[in-house]
């Protein structure tokens, strides 16, 4: 899947955040839209940008990204993650700039629970190659395997690191006292 080629010559038509969330709720259900927050700034305290918090099951994650791309190319920022007990929740932070209007943006966070019984997530690399380092970081720190990520080498941990130890996990796969090195 490749995204539509958005012409730089055609000025974007601003799309209200409500139109985006209505389409997402239509396709993924009302529960997929978690929160909408308008951010204000400046002397006039005018609306500057909107944040959308969305959630989706991992099996439909790429479909969610494709739906966002129907509105505008999703500009990827970073993936954050949290060990929430039975699942590791990934948060994909994106922005949609062109559809918001000049000088504005729509921030989008897509949250995906990845249950520890199946720590495999579809990679976003085929659509947005810039996710490579974030997916590699999440792989080595939280233990999520990204299906379709071509390079799965370590980027932060030493080459001789025991890859069964996941530094950001809070369960038995997290580091023990013997794994922590004191620097002083």
In short:
The chain is an alpha/beta fold. The chain has helices at residues 17-28, 61-71, 132-142; strands at 33-41, 46-55, 75-83, 87-96, 105-115, 120-122, 145-147. It is 18% helix and 30% strand.
What does this structure look like?
- The chain has 184 residues and is an alpha/beta fold.
- It has a single domain, classed as Beta Polymerase, domain 2, CATH 3.30.460.
- 18% of the residues lie in helices and 30% in strands.
- The protein has three helices and seven strands.
- The strands form two sheets. A five-stranded mixed β-sheet has the order 1-2-5-4-3. A two-stranded parallel sheet has the order 6-7.
- A hairpin with a 4-residue loop joins strand 1 and strand 2.
- The longest helix has 12 residues.
- The N and C termini lie far apart (50 Å).
- The model has no long low-confidence stretch (mean pLDDT 87).
Topology as H/E string? HEEHEEEEHE
* General shape: elongated
**What is the CATH domain class?**
Alpha Beta
Helical residues, percent: 10-25%
Level-2 CATH architecture: 2-Layer Sandwich
Structural class by helix and strand composition: alpha/beta
Largest sheet strand order: 1-2-5-4-3
Beginning-to-end CA distance, first to last residue: 50 Å
Largest sheet: 5 strands, mixed
Rg result = 19 Å
Would you tell me which CATH topology applies? Answer: Beta Polymerase, domain 2
Number of helical segments? 3
* CATH homologous superfamily (4th level) name: NADH:ubiquinone oxidoreductase Nqo5 subunit
The tally of structural domains comes to 1
Oligomer: single chain
> Per DSSP, what share of the residues sits in E-state strands of 2 or more residues?
25-35%
């Amino acid at each position: 899947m490749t995204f539509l080629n958005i012409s730089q010559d055609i000025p974007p038509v601003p799309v209200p955040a409500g139109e985006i969330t209505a389409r997402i709720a239509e396709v993924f259900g009302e529960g997929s839209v978690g929160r909408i927050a308008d951010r204000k700034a400046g002397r006039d305290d005018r609306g500057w940008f909107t944040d959308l918090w969305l959630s989706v099951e991992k099996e439909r994650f790429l479909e969610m990204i494709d739906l966002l791309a129907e509105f505008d190319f999703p500009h990827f920022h970073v993936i954050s993650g949290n060990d929430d007990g039975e699942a590791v929740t990934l948060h994909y932070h994106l922005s949609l700039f062109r559809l918001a209007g000049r000088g504005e943006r729509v921030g989008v966070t897509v949250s995906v629970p990845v249950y520890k019984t199946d720590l495999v997530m579809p990679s976003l690399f085929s659509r947005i190659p810039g996710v490579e380092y974030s997916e590699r970081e999440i792989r080595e720190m939280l233990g999520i395997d990204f299906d379709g990520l071509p390079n799965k080498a370590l980027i932060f941990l030493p080459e001789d690191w025991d890859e069964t130890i996941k530094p950001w996990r809070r369960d038995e796969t997290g580091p023990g006292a013997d794994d922590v090195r004191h620097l002083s």
